[in-house]
Amino acid sequence: MEIHQSAVILLLVVCVSFSAHAQPPHILPRYQKFLNQHRDPDMSEQKCDSEMRKRGITGTGNGCKPVNTFIQANTNQIKAVCGGGGTPQGGNLFKSNQPFPVITCRLQSGERPPRCEYHKGKKSTRYIVLGCEKGWPVHYEEGIVDQSMHEL
After folding, report:
1. DSSP string spanning 45-106?
2. Which among 75, 83, 78, 95 is positioned nearest to 21, based on CA atoms?
3. Phi and psi of 93, rounded to 5°?
4. N or C: which end of the chain has fewer CB within 10 A?
5. CA 72, 85, 20 angle in degrees (round to 5)?
6. Average pLDDT over residues 75-94
7. Distance in angstroms between the alpha carbons of the first and the last residue of the chain
8. Which fold has domain 25-149?
9. CB-based contacts of 115, cutoff 8 Å, min separation 6
10. Distance CA 122, CA 136 (A)
11. Known catalytic residues?
12. pLDDT by residue (tens digit) across 131-146?
């Protein structure tokens, strides 16, 4: 019987642990939007125009989105910036402790969707600054060039 009670206690501890780290439901849509707009581990410079269109992030009726950055990392690496893998910058902003490879896409032509066209992207390595809520990334603020890997 002791083994059974120990198993129940262990199960309760695991459940409490998972619920303590669970994502609050009101953050989920913002986190998913962030991932759609800014995460793609397989992004290439050639895919800017097609990915911006496919993901529906070219802009709004008010105008084309001038710049968008894709982080080439997995979700755990990006989420870590909002915790131990990042340094608080004030407010809800965190700067990554390590640089990330990114692809920056810039508007080439067009004033309003669906006529937004994007240049071939530019690959670089940057420290990323993210807006975080309760440990979850919800906003890409900026990228800061990693001077140790400065491109010529």
Report:
1. GGGHHHHHHHTT-SEETTEE-SEEEEE-S-HHHHHHTTTTTEEEEETTEEEESS-EEEEEEE
2. 83
3. -95, 140
4. C
5. 105
6. 97
7. 69
8. P-30 Protein (3.10.130)
9. 64, 109
10. 27
11. 38, 139
12. 999 999 999 998 887 6
